[in-house]
């Protein structure tokens, strides 16, 4: 899979530095899991982090710090944390497979969504599934919206977005994505702020979607 | 498998080498000709950045060797050397990211415990020691932040692995990368290095960086983009 649309360098650096809130990090990490070029960039930014860490001035530890830690070495470690769950029947990218997903819910003609559980931060994350040939309601963003395409493809003013592609939209973007014919399009969407659906159909949907 | 005596000898060499490297770097440090990013001395001082933010030329190869000794021999002395080197720096990192002294101390301890427990998973062909340890500290900080929000964490950023298995001639890739990164950082204009440091060590949102540097938000965004793109280009050139 070769992605054509990628996060910007500062976004990848923010992921590497641990600066993103959980929801935003999840969408970017999912793209990175699907994109070799961005994996390479994240790896090099992690190296930058290592070099900068080496360059920091040390802060002295408590006088007994060394003794304390040496005593702890033989204690059993905690059970593996953050391990990838064994069951991943849908073959989701690893970062996403670690999250609880809600059931698919119908929200409009040919469009379904399911929630992705997030514990921290102000992003809402969900998956969106749209039937081939669907035109999504005209919408305007009130905050930042990051999307990673997992399957299928959509198009809008700025190009075609297929599996693995990363799309970034903000207040300045007002668009109406069109789902390509072929297979259904499934996306992972992380949103800060909300979106405003336009038109009578959109206004009908708004309370249902509560995005 | 090497004879234990051979391993012990290598370990001694590593320790001597690490000590020597530290001495050399300390001595060199004092020379006025030492290249150092102080092109913005007043600003750096104002925001708590001083000499320690310069890019030091410390070798990381020894740290890699120490981690391997820890992995293979469960050697406490080698671990102690790693602890002495990295724990105080992780503490600084964590304080910079907004933690209290006590929390930072705990996190540094916890990070080094993970180094001890997971040393066998460290692969010097894939990452430098400092990059590996940086990702451990980074993940702990994220977890700790999420615990503070009374929430369990399950988005764990594993260290990004390269796609291809390492070839024998790539064995020192981790070390090469560190040298490349140092050279690349040295070539960046000071203002670009500054925003990179701010985003790595203070995790500042773009708006806060704009305030800290007293420049417009748009300038911060374009400078970050320029800085990280330039850094990537330099790293590619140096490969």
Q: At CATH's second level, what is the architecture of chain A?
A: Sandwich
**What is the number of helices of chain A?**
6
Report the strand count of chain B: 0
Unreliable stretches of chain B (pLDDT < 50, length at least 5) are: 19-58, 151-156, 165-173
Q: Span between N and C termini of chain A?
A: 30 Å
Give a short summary of the structure.
The complex is a heterodimer of chains A (211) and B (239). With 211 residues, chain A is an alpha+beta fold.
Account of the 3D structure:
- The complex is a heterodimer of chains A (211) and B (239).
- With 211 residues, chain A is α+β, with helices and mostly antiparallel strands.
- Chain A has a single domain (1-81, 92-211), classed as Jelly Rolls (Sandwich), CATH 2.60.120.10.
- Chain A has helices at residues 9-17, 22-34, 36-55, 65-72, 94-97, 199-209, and strands at residues 105-108, 111-115, 124-130, 139-141, 145-151, 154-156, 159-161, 166-169, 174-175, 178-179, 185-191, 195-197.
- The model of chain A has no long low-confidence stretch (mean pLDDT 86).
- Chain B is mostly helical and 239 residues long.
- Chain B has helices spanning 4-30, 41-46, 61-73, 76-96, 101-118, 129-148, 173-187, 190-201, 206-213, 217-238.
- The longest helix of chain B is centred in the N-terminal third of the chain and has 27 residues, at 4-30.
- Chains A and B meet through helix 1, helix 2, helix 3 and helix 4 of A and helix 4, helix 5, helix 6, helix 7 and helix 8 of B.
Write out key terms for the chains shown:
heterodimer, A: 211 residues, alpha+beta, Jelly Rolls, six-stranded antiparallel sheet, three-stranded antiparallel sheet, elongated, B: 239 residues, mainly alpha, flat
Fold topology:
The complex is a heterodimer of chains A (211) and B (239).
Chain A: H1 9-17, H2 22-34, H3 36-55, H4 65-72, H5 94-97, E1 105-108, E2 111-115, E3 124-130, E4 139-141, E5 145-151, E6 154-156, E7 159-161, E8 166-169, E9 174-175, E10 178-179, E11 185-191, E12 195-197, H6 199-209
Helix pairs in contact in A: 1-3, 2-3
Chain B: H1 4-30, H2 41-46, H3 61-73, H4 76-96, H5 101-118, H6 129-148, H7 173-187, H8 190-201, H9 206-213, H10 217-238
